[in-house]
Amino acid sequence: MIIRRERPADRETVRAVLVTAFETPMQADLVDRLRASAEWLPELALVACDGDQVIATVMCSRAHLDPVGTPVLSFGPIAVHPEHQGGKTTVPLMHAMIAAAEARGEAAILLFGDVDFYPHFGFEPAGKYAITPLAGGPHRGESDEFLVRTLAAYEPSMTGSFRYSPAFSQ
Q1: Domain tally for the chain?
Q2: Domain containing 136: what range?
Q3: What is the pLDDT of residue 111?
């Protein structure tokens, strides 16, 4: 398996992986909106390939902490084709994304997700860092599902309400 940056030629296959993995086009449509937004970060759109075939995708987009507008990352979506699901694809893809974000000098990655899965990658409850979900934001999950992975550029003053790209609300 090879993990690399997504290429323009991968977009249709990435869309197919998202639709197949989620059994709905909702996440694929979100990715299309993110790609068209100012918050799109192409260097943080990764794919896992088995030979020439894209079997998984993950991305981060620009987000902010209000009231100051501190730049952070919003994680996801991540999707693995059902025929390849399991740790053999997901785990290396997660590590590659975290390493890519770290290499860019990003401060933190935030997500709503499985509290039994994401802590294996260093994610912790965001509330521990005084980071809260923005009221009225796209996720209505339990606050314990709101997680952060701080990176080397993180500073304790980086607190506030997490604001996604507007693409998440469209």
Answers
A1: 1
A2: 2-169
A3: 92
